[in-house]
Each structure stands twice: as C-alpha cells, then as structure tokens.
Amino acid sequence: xxxxxxxxxxxxxxxxxxxxxxxxxxxxxxxxxxxxxxxxxxxxxxxxxxxxxxxxxxxxxxxxxxxxxxxxxxxxxxxxxxxxxxxxxxxxxxxxxxxxxxxxxxxxxxxxxxxxxxxxxxxxxxxxxxxxxxxxxxxxxxxxxxxxxxxxxxxxxxxxxxxxxxxxxxxxxxxxxxxxxxxxxxxxxxxxxxxxxxxxxxxxxxxxxxxxxxxxxxxxxxxxxxxxxxxxxxxxxxxxxxxxxxxxxxxxxxxxxxxxxxxxxxxxxxxxxxxxxxxxxxxxxxxxxxxxxxxxxxxxxxxxxxxxxxxxxxxxxxxxxxxxxxxxxxxxxxxxxxxxxxxxxxxxxxxxxxxxxxxxxxxxxxxxxxxxxxxxxxxxxxxxxxxxxxxxxxxxxxxxxxxxxxxxxxxxxxxxxxxxxxxxx
Length: 425
Known about the structure:
With 425 residues, the protein is an all-alpha fold. Helix content is 71%, strand content 0%. It is globular.
C-alpha cells in the first residue's frame, strides 16, 4: 500500500519585527537619504557652499598668510578662516532673508517693518524676472526644444514694454496692462522666428536663437540713441523713463518688491496647468518624448514647434517687461536686462524643467544675488564669488552621479532595494 504524501501549505509569514539596527528612525533616515531629486539638489547646494568657503579663504590674503605657519600656531588659521566664512555666509543670509537685529528692533518698536523685510524684498525683486525666463527655457525643453534665445526674447520684450510705457499715455491700470501685453507680444514675436524656421526648414533652434540674441541686444543699443527714444537732454545711452502709470506698483512704499512676483506665481501656476492639464500640454510632451510617434498619432509636430516657441518667447518677453517696469531706473539702458535670459537657463536646469521647481530655483538665485550685495559691502567678498556659487550648484546638479558617489547615495539606494527584494522573495 502506497501512502500518499501530503503537503501542508506553509503558514503565512508573520511580519518581521524590525531589528534594533532597523528601527523606525533608521528606516526614515534611509528613505530621506535616498538618491532622489530633492536630496541631490540639496546636497549639490551644500557642496557648492563648502567649495565656496574654501574659495573665500583663498581669496583673502590676510587669512591665507596664517596658513604659512599653521604648524606652529594652527589656531590663527582656523579662527581666521571660521571668522571669515561665518561672516560672509551670515551676510549672505542677512542680505537675502532677514537680519535678526532689524527684526528684533522692529519687534521692540525701535525699528520699522520696512527695514526688517528689505532683504526678502530684494530677493523677490531679483527672482521675479528669472521665473519668467526660467519657465521659457523649461517649457521649450519639455517640448524637445532647447531655447537659448531667452536673452534676446527678454530684450525685445523689454524694448516693447518700455516704449509702450512712455508712449501710450493711458490711464493708470490700462497703461500698465498695455505695457505688459506689449512686452509679451515682443517676446512672442522673437520666439516665433526660430519656431517657424524650425517648423518649415528644420533649422536648429540653438543656432537661430543664439543669433537672434545678438540681433536683439544690438538693436537695443541702437534704439536708445535714436531721437524720440533717448532721454531728453542726455547724450549717453538711456531712454525716456517709463510713465508712472505703467510702473509696477510696489509693496510697502519703500520696498522694491512689486507686483511682478505675484504675476510670477500666477504664471507658474498657469504653465503647470498648461503642461499637465491642457491638450496642448499633452501634445508638446508627446512631441518632446518622441516626435515620430507623435506624428504617427496625428499630432502636427511642425505646428507644435512653432506654437511652443511663441509661448516660450512670450514668457521671456514678459520677464523683460517685469525687469524694466519694476526696476529702479524704469528706462532702457544697454544693461537693462542684465543676464536674466542666460540665468534663466541655469534656473530651469536647477528646477529640473518643472514649473514649481523653476520658481524655487529663481528664488534661490535671487537670494544669492541679494545676499551677495551685502556680502560684498560688509565682508569685502567679491560679488563674482556669488556667480561662482551659482555655477558650482549648476555643475553638481548637472552631474548627479558625482553627488551620489560623494555621499554614497547609490549604495544606500541599492541596499534598500536589495532589502525590499529579499523580503518580497
């Protein structure tokens, strides 16, 4: 007689109790320390600040001299370096966010709230135009185009907004709206040119937008010296001032921050909706992912390219309008746009070409600019160091593998995935 082998189903595995070295806190820290986008971005900023600290010490001859006898008296070098670095970064914070002394004076009634909020005001003032130029680059990139023409589009938007601002003479609200629309249309026109060339002839947008940057900048230099545009009684390159009715209203009277930052937030929300909720956003993302597949699905790739560059140019032009209508000069000069178009490339890269990420990156760049001004005056640190910090942040953002390698993020992530796989088996 053969006995039938009976097999019993294994009892369900009970949830394993975390070991002492696998507590909730360690699990949370491993998740926080994972190689995700936010972590890499934060660590990139930390690395840039560390290298910036080294550059601050190297750039100061007095502190650098103490390293000549560091073996005999190391305290001089260490104390001098710490004093210099802490002062510089404290000034960077006080010039960008708030000065604790000013806030304390305001809270005790011995100072004004305007003084307490001036650093934050400067940060937001510098950040507002960068939001628009950053969104211009980010939106084009999501559609598969590399818009390097943000500077030229912003310059043309600045020109059309300023000319409308000192020419139309409309009532207060209408004049401002007309100037903003003029800036938007000027940038849209400058974006339409490379867009239609890309759609009809296949001309690479990188080449055409770079060339149009030069055309826009040279046109600005020529225009502000022409009769009717140049300021009356002036022989240098400066235009008439924008009428007060076309200037962006500021907050708090003495603060420089103006309506531009509110428009920046609203436009960011609009671009996020356009990308994620609209039919055009779906089309441009499809074209950006695979133009051939999008064409097979019935999407007009040429039309999408042209329309995409128009929208991107309009955003950059609006940034130029914000720059001239909300600055202290309210007039066209050869440097009126500074480098907001080129900085928009860095802002978009730091923001991972996401609308809200671009907004936060613009605020960070505005903070570096605002804090750098105080750092230069108080700590006698060159303003170019702020540019170096920006460049270092972008370098590390563009090389996430380097950041992961330095902080061993890849190993942490692999270990976590291995643990999850083992538990699953």
